[in-house]
Amino acid sequence: MDPRTIDQLSVDELTIDQLTAASGVPSRTIRQYQTEGLLAPPVRHGRVGHYGSAHLDRLALIARLQDRGYSLAGMRDLFAAWEAGGGLHSVLGTDAAIVPVDEPSVLCTEEQLVEQLAPLARPALRRAATAARLIDRIPDRPGEWRVRSPAALELIADLVAAGARPADAIAMFQRLHDSFDVMAADLARLTAALDRAEVTELLRRHRGSISRSVATLAVGAVADTLDDEQRDAVRIGAIDDRRP
Q: Which of 38, 71, 120, 147 shows the smallest number of beta carbons within 10 Å?
């Protein structure tokens, strides 16, 4: 390694070891990001690759997006769209004005989790919410949790405040996830014999369509079980409520 400190080096002449020291990201992870297309390769001077401020900025951005629950595949699509001069519709493959995007997860302490939904102070209900994939423990960070869908937790809190039993509200989402598992298994079977690269591109292109169709069908199914006044309340502003 260059004997000079990072502060003494130009910000655009860092080796991968120095980039690791400056960013806190292991070199193996940096190479993975390059393979995934999330990070540009270094500038080569002979056999040595040099990294710069743009690489540091990108690593910081990746860390922030990961903290909000974005996957590497999702970040790759976002970066590709931005670099191509596209907007959100380019990432989703459809009209961004009417398509719900993936909801970022939220990190919180156990105290904050209980503030959002008081019954989660009970270990049995936390276990049920974890099984329903509403919340997850953060590995190697005791007392910290990831809320996968803040909107789902907010709905459960409002249902409980209105008088619903917390266990029943959580079980509703358990059944919802079970149905998604069936859908995912069916999709896997449908595409098992198809070209893997083509299926990957199809899923990338139709990610927005999957999100929109699930939301539309869910709103419709809920509305179909309600009385007229409740049905109108659910459908007002729904994404499928755009017919003349």
A: 71
